[in-house]
Amino acid sequence: MSTSSAIRLLIADDHVLLTDMLEAHLKKLGPEVQIEKAINLAETLTFANGEAAFDLVILDLRMPGMNGLAGMKAVRKHFPGIPIAVMSGEATAENAKNAYDAGAIGFIPKTIGGRAMLNAVQLMLSGERYFPVGLSDAASAAGKPATPGAALQGLGALTARERDVLRL
């Protein structure tokens, strides 16, 4: 996180209504929350030249200019060391795994509830990863709800604490 007490977030999504609603929810984290918004990849990258660093970038997987995870790689290059969470309406195990493989600290489905989203953001701001349990490869392939154990398959790169959080 940044050295000041303010929490700085960048929300990059082309749906203005969604970003406005996210901003309203994220303001519940505290009065020190500062939020910037971008509607495409090019606008997102302009924030990389700003003076203040962000604590977290929330990046829509399918906004204009993204070209899938190629856009994520561009954002990673322009925001080195800043955690990036991928957000998508296409909440599939493949998208979550690809985001993880590309270096995302988390994957936020657009179907997530407000309270769960706040918890996920707080978790990521504390340096932990957030990947929903329901997006395990095993469960998606079988078309069945995930079990906590199944969600952990293929996530061997997670720390023991990250696996404990997923189990919860």
Question: How does this structure look, described?
Answer:
Helix 4 links the parallel strand 4 and strand 5 (106-109). The chain has helices spanning 16-26, 41-46, 69-78, 93-101, 114-125, 137-142, 148-151, 160-167, and strands at 7-12, 33-38, 56-60, 84-88, 106-109. The protein starts with 6 loop residues before the first strand and ends with a helix. The protein contains eight helices and five strands. Helix content is 39%, strand content 15%. The protein is of the alpha/beta class and 168 residues long. The protein is globular and about 35 Å long. It has a five-stranded parallel beta sheet with strand order 2-1-3-4-5, with helices on both faces.
Keywords:
168 residues; alpha/beta; globular
Lay out the secondary structure:
Elements: E1 7-12, H1 16-26, E2 33-38, H2 41-46, E3 56-60, H3 69-78, E4 84-88, H4 93-101, E5 106-109, H5 114-125, H6 137-142, H7 148-151, H8 160-167
Parallel strand pairs: 1-2, 1-3, 3-4, 4-5
Mean pLDDT: 81
* Molecular shape: globular
Distance from first to last alpha carbon: 25 Å
Strand content: 15-25%
Alpha-carbon Rg, integer: 15 Å
Total strand segments: 5
- The secondary-structure element order is EHEHEHEHEHHHH
Strand order of the largest sheet: 2-1-3-4-5
Structural class: alpha/beta
Number of helical segments with 4 or more residues: 8
In terms of per-residue confidence, which ranges show pLDDT below 50 for 5 or more consecutive residues?
A: 136-153
Largest sheet: 5 strands, parallel
Helix content: 25-40%
